[in-house]
Prior knowledge:
Number of strands: 12
Number of domains: 2
Number of helices: 2
CATH topology of the largest domain: Jelly Rolls
Amino acid sequence: MGIVPGRKRDRQQPLRRRLVxxxxxxxxxxxxWQASAExxxxxxxxxxxxxxxxxxxVSKNKDPxxxxxxxxxxxxxxxxxxxxxxxxQLGYEKQWPLGEYPILQWQWRAVxxxxxxxxxxxxxxxxxLGLYVVFGHWPFIRSIKYVWSDTLPxxxxxxxxxxxxxxxxxxxxxxxxxxxxxxxxxxxxxxYRRLFxxxxxxxxxxxxxxxxxxxxxxxxxxxxxxxxxxxTPRLEKTPPIVLKSPLTLPSxxxxxxxSRFLSWN
Length: 265
């Protein structure tokens, strides 16, 4: 019996279709993996203009530049906060899943502590350095605020004196490292579950904010922030503490407002 023309070609077509589908599936999985592996947030301030607030950051205050400006030292740019009897929050809104990226890592430097501060009391609730992770949407916002306290011991955690939806955690204390860049690293997911009594929860973080303030103590506070990033445990790093370098404390700014960014106290 002779061979029917085209039969061999008909047998090969389903195989080609299967190979095309398999290739498409593999490429789709690779693209999805690459997208999930990208860091959701990594802020370095290197491309921001010196002397102005960083791009992409927002505040309820009309002129956050009175407190927050990008500065440079040794070729490295960072966010300088200088608050004279002021409380202005600066926030960066970028959502990421804590279940995948539970680690937050950053560097900061305490330059000048507010006088007679005590973050547990309304009358003393000022800090040279405070960094928030924010959850939810108005009016059901929750936040964790990590502070470098002048007076309270490391490890202390408590409700903000302004709102029970804001939890404060003291992760650095005292003036022994004043003027020194220090690297911090927190498991925000573990902190969230502990502080909000939410075992098993894996919420999405809505963004971060910083607050260097001195309005409650009617004094002055100065602090610096740099290299803020969310990480998976697999990508977790251990950056060194940057050695102390000479600081020139600028003259205090004048005329700051006293509004609070979304009232994340």
